[in-house]
């Protein structure tokens, strides 16, 4: 794995885990923001747990595709909520993260095919 790929993966893991932790901790800003779109506290904790577990799974080659896919699903949901809220900056940042998650999934699958 090349240095830019490692850095990209590290940033994605950090984004997923830190985003998930804020939801699990029920940070008031997240509770208020997602609550406006029907997220209850238990649902927000589950959403955050998926992000944390997915982010941690991305650290290992064997579980990277599943972890990145789980994180991508949560980020797509976040993009929908951000678009509904009219938050342009965070929407663009989350879409960019989704692009890199997709590239990570594609690259990992290609490496797994080449190795088998």
Residue runs with pLDDT of under 50 for 5 or more positions? none
Sheet-strand content, in percent, reads under 5%
Q: Give the end-to-end Cα distance, rounded to a whole number of Å.
A: 17 Å
Order of helices and strands: HHHHH
Q: Can you give the helix content as a percent range?
A: over 70%
Radius of gyration: 15 Å
- Beta strand count: 0
Q: State mean pLDDT (0 to 100 scale).
A: 96
Task: Outline the structure in words.
With 116 residues, this protein is mainly α. α1 crosses α5. The radius of gyration is 15 Å and the shape is elongated.
What's the topology here?
Elements: H1 3-24, H2 28-35, H3 41-57, H4 64-85, H5 88-115
Helix pairs in contact: 1-3, 1-5, 3-4, 4-5
In short:
With 116 residues, the chain is mostly helical.
Which terms summarize this structure?
116 residues, 5 helices, single chain, mainly alpha
């Amino acid at each position: 794995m090349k240095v830019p790929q490692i850095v990209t993966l590290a940033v994605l893991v950090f984004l997923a885990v830190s985003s998930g932790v804020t939801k699990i901790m029920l940070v008031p800003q997240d509770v208020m923001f997602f609550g406006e779109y029907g997220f209850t506290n238990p649902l927000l904790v589950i959403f955050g747990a998926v992000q944390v577990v997915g982010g941690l799974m991305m650290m290992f080659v064997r579980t990277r595709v599943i972890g990145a896919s789980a994180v991508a699903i949560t980020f797509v949901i976040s993009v929908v909520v951000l678009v509904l809220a009219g938050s342009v900056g965070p929407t663009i940042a989350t879409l960019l993260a989704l692009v890199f998650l997709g590239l990570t999934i594609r690259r990992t699958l290609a490496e797994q095919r080449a190795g088998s």
